[in-house]
Amino acid sequence: MTDSVAAEAPPHRKQESKSYGQILRSTAVIGASYLAVTLISIVRMKVVALLLGPAGVGLMGIYNLIIDLGGSVASMGVASSGVRQISEANGSGDSRRIGMTVVAVKWLSAALAVTGALVLIALSVPVSWLTFGTDLQAMAIAVLGIGVLFRVVGTAQITILQGLRRTRDLALANIASTLTGAIATVAFIAWLGEKGIAPGLMLGLAATFVTAVLFSRRVSIAPVPRREAIRDQARPLFRLGFVFMTSALLTTGSAYLIRIIVLHADGVHAAGLYQSAWGIAALYAGFVLQAMGTDFYPRVTEVASNNAEVNRLVNEQARVSLLLAGPGVIATISLAPLVLLIFYSSAFVEAQALLRWICLGMMLRVVAWPMGFIVLAKGAERPFFWTELAAAAVQVGLAAVLVPWIGVDGAGLAFVGLYVWHTGIIYLVARSLSGFRWSHGNGLLTLVYLAATALALGGSFLLDFWPATALGVILAGATGLYSLREVLLLAPEVVPKPLRPLIARLEKR
Known about the structure:
Blueprint: H1 11-75, H2 78-92, H3 95-122, H4 124-132, H5 138-163, H6 167-192, H7 197-216, H8 226-302, H9 307-334, H10 336-343, H11 352-378, H12 381-406, H13 409-434, H14 440-462, H15 465-490, H16 500-508
Subcellular location: Cell membrane
Protein name: O-antigen translocase
Membrane topology: Multi-pass membrane protein
C-alpha cells in the first residue's frame, strides 16, 4: 500500500477522482460557511420564536417573501444572467470581457434597485390589502421597499464573486452578512416586538450590502468605460435575465401565494407553523443546494458546448449531492418533534407532520436540481420558462386544493407533488438538450435513498413514537455510513494522508 490511492488508479479514475475532489472541496468550503450561516440562523430563529411565537414567525416569513418577490421583479434577472456571462468570460480568459460584464451588472442593478424600491413603496397599500386583507401593514411594507433596494445591489456584488468562482471570499461574505443581518433583526424585534420586524429586516439587508461590497472590492477587474460596458452588455444581460426573473418570480410568487392560501385558510398561526417547517427542511438541504448553485453552475457553464462533459459533471454532482443530503433528510424526518423543539419551541411541535412532508420534497429536489443546471448552462430560455411556469402552477394548484381540505399539511403535500412531477419533466428536458442519462450507479443510489426516506416517513405515521424513531435512526445511520464510505472513495486525494491507508482497505472490499 502507498500513501496515495489515487496515484495507483487508471487514468479515467484519476480524472473522475479529481472532478469529485473539486466538487467535494467546493462543497466543503461553501458547506462550512453554510454551517456557520445555519448556526447563526438557528439562533435567530430560536430568539424570534421565543419572543414572538408562531404568529410572529409567520409574519416575518411573509415579510421576507415580499422582499424576495420585490427583489425578483426589481432585479430583472440581471444578477443571475450576470453569473452566466461572467463565468463564460472567465472561461475564455478575456479580462476586458470580464470587466465589461462586471461594470454593466453593477450599474444596471443599481438603477433597477432604486426603481424597484420606489415602486414597492408606492404600492405598499395595495400589497398590504392583497396579503393581509387590511392596510395596517402598509407602513411596514414601505420599509421593506428600502430593503429591496439593498437586496438587489447586494446581490449584484455577490454575482461577481460567484461568476469568478471566488469560493472562499463568497463563503466569508455569506457568514459576515448573515451575522450582521441577524444582529440587526433580533435587536429591533427585542426592542419593538412585531413592529421591529420590518425595520430589522431592512437594516439587516443594508448590512449585507455593505459586507458584499467590501468583499467584491478584493477582485481586480480590468477598467472599462461605464457607458460602453452598459451599451455592450445590457442586451444579453436583459435577454437571459428576463428568463431568470420570470423563473424567480414564479418560484417566489408561488411561495407567496401558498403563504396567502395558508394565511387565509387557517390564520397567521398556521403560517408560522409552515414557516418553521420550511425553515428547518431548507437548512440541511440548503447545505448541498447552495454549494451546487455557487460553484457547480459556473463550472458547468464553462463547458456548456460539450455535451459529454456536461453530462459527466451533472452525474458526478448528483451523486455527491445525494450522498451528502440523504442521511440528514432521513434523520430530520425521524426526529421531527425534537428538531422543532430545539430550533423553535414547544409551540411549534404540531408542525412535525408538515416538516416530514417537506423533507420528502427536499429529497426529490436534490435529485432534480443537478439536471436543471443543464437547462441553465445551455441558455435554453423557452424550456426553462415553461418548466418553471408549469412547476409554479402545479404547486399552487395542489396547495389551493389541499390546504382548505386537510389544513396546513396540505402545503407540504403540494411540495412533494411538485417535485414528483418536476423531476420527471426536467429529466426529459435535459435529455433532449444534451442527451443526458442517469448513470446506472446514480439510478440505483436514488432508488435506495428514496426508498429509505419513504420507509422512515411511513414509519413516523404508522408506528408509535419510539419504534418509528428507532427505525428512522437506523436508516439514517446506515445511509450515513454508506455515504461516508462512498465520499471517501470518490475523492481519496482530499483525505488527509494519515487516513489514506483506511481508504485503501475500503477500496479492496
